[in-house]
Amino acid sequence: MESITPQHFLILAFLLFGVGFLGVVIRRNLLLVLMSLELMLNGVNVALVTFSRTGQNLDGSLFVFFIMTVAAAEVAVGLALLVALYKKRRSIFSEDAGLLQN
Asked: CA 90 → CA 21, 27, 47, 67, 86, distances in Å?
């Protein structure tokens, strides 16, 4: 039976990042764009933990905590902007986001 190697984790990280990137590029719904950004950040987290474990160094795991903090702040600010956009325009599509200036 084959064991799980760091390459398997890097493939998973690449797939998570790729699906998240496609979601950011293709989607128009801002809530789905925020979810896709979270997928991208999780892909980076998996890659950092993999590099940290293979290098016998905990620096990558330390960066993961900072990324998780940034992701939590991103969710808070992003959802606040979505609520403001929905209250003003009754829509959460990305093309309506530029209309918040008026």
From this structure: 26, 18, 38, 32, 4
Does this model's pTM top 0.85? My answer is no
Query: Residue 45 sits in which domain range?
Result: 6-101
CATH (domain of 66): 1.10.287.3510
Question: Per-residue pLDDT tens for 40-52?
Answer: 999 999 998 998 8
- Cα distances (Å, whole numbers) of residue 78 to 61, 64, 66, 69, 82: 25, 20, 18, 14, 6
Q: How far apart are the first and last CA of the chain?
A: 62
